[in-house]
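Dear colleagues,

As part of the handover before I leave the project, I'm documenting each prediction I ran so the next person doesn't have to rerun anything. This entry is a single chain, and its sequence is reproduced below.
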Amino acid sequence: MAWIYLVSAGFLEIVWAFFMKKSAGFTLLVPGAITIVTMIASFTLLSLAMRTLPLGTAYTVWTGIGAVGAFAVGIVVLGESVTLMRLLAAALILVGIILMKFSGPNG
């Protein structure tokens, strides 16, 4: 169950990052509110996952999902640039997430 909480928390991190961008520095009410609600939900799920998973694993996977997901949303939804170096960096983060998942006793 901890991994379900963790992956869900990671996806919510992607959502709040996107809506933070759309909130224009928290000057727009609805995107700003969505940001805050999804942040709280993401942190809550992360804290539930950390009851079982090691800190290093949980935090690394959570931030990795958020980083790679926000990167992908930036490209697909926001039209941000795609370069070989950026793709390689995202791939390395993804490999790190996978290795972290399988590295420990709770993996």
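The first helix runs from residue 2 to 22. The chain has one domain: 2-101.

All the best with the project,
I.
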